[in-house]
Amino acid sequence: MTLNCGGKIGRLFLMSINIVFMVIGLGLLVVGALMKSNVLGLKDDIKAVLNGIVVNDWKLGNLVGSLTIIFIFIGVFLFLVAFLGFFGAFFQNRCVLVTYAVLVLLLLLMKIAVIILWYIMKNGIENEIKSHLLESLKTKFVDDSTDGGNDISNAWNIMFMSLDCCGVNPVNSTTNDFDQTTWCTTKGDCQETNADIPKTCCIGVTESTYKSAPTKCYYSLQRETYNKKGCYQAIKDLLNDQITDNAPRVLAVAITISLLEVFAIISAFVVGRQSGKNEKLHTSKPI
Is residue 281 classed exposed, middle or buried when 0-12, 13-18 and 19+ CB atoms within 10 A define those classes? Predict the structure, then answer.
């Protein structure tokens, strides 16, 4: 089929850009796989704490897990759509190109909606997560051990050691988040004034050594003996390493891809329109 100059440029652009989109799709697939092995390498005990936090009917632990599925799904979808666009441009198939243009338009609108919702809801969700963490610590933390009768309390202690954190907010003095817990108000070393923070908050302890933590850590709170960072910040940092810290770069890439998608939609319609005209001319020629 013969295309005019604009059609040829559009066809070349479509073929080139969809090769790039296929590579990006594979890249998102790899990112999703890495997130699954890294971020979601959290111990089941820590996930138990996170799943105790429900935000808009979503359990936080499951929500974090869903991020990997979303990345993988978007990667596969983008790869398939890009392959469809390349196929349609290469063979100048009008039907395939129109389908491709519609799919890219839907993808573009979904992307814009997700970005807007994320920036609108981000702060509110973070504040809600923090309040749920504080409530969980206050009502569920009953002992500074990993083998007690309360699974959530055990999970908190394991999280303190795994994420090198303590409490929800930073621990800067003997007055801290643990003051309102059952461990401090009803029964436990804190209530008996034998500790101000759990032994599991001490620097360098493990599940096999925390019971012999030094008193200068959990009782005296001497500097450099305990983890000051709150677990809310530790969880944010864990996610930031994979997601939020890269947000400016991700946003820049998203904007660039969105602009390319707009040109891809225009090119698809141009090539598809000219291909359709050529088909009519071809079928109208006398035999």
Answer: exposed
Predicted TM-score (pTM) of this structure: 0.61
Q: Please report, as a single letter, which amino acid is at residue 251.
A: L
Alpha carbon distance 42, 27 (integer Å) = 23
Task: Answer yes or no: are the C-beta atoms of 201 and 226 closer than 8 Å.
Answer: yes
- In degrees rounded to 5, what are phi and psi of residue 111? -65, -45
| CB-CB contact of 257 with 243 (8 Å) | no
Could you report the per-residue pLDDT of 156-196, keeping only the tens digit for each? Answer: 999 999 899 999 999 999 899 999 999 999 888 898 888 99
DSSP for residue 59: E
Question: With contact defined as beta carbons under 8 Å apart, do 175 and 167 qualify?
Answer: no
Indicate the Cα dihedral angle 20, 24, 29, 31, nearest 10°: 150
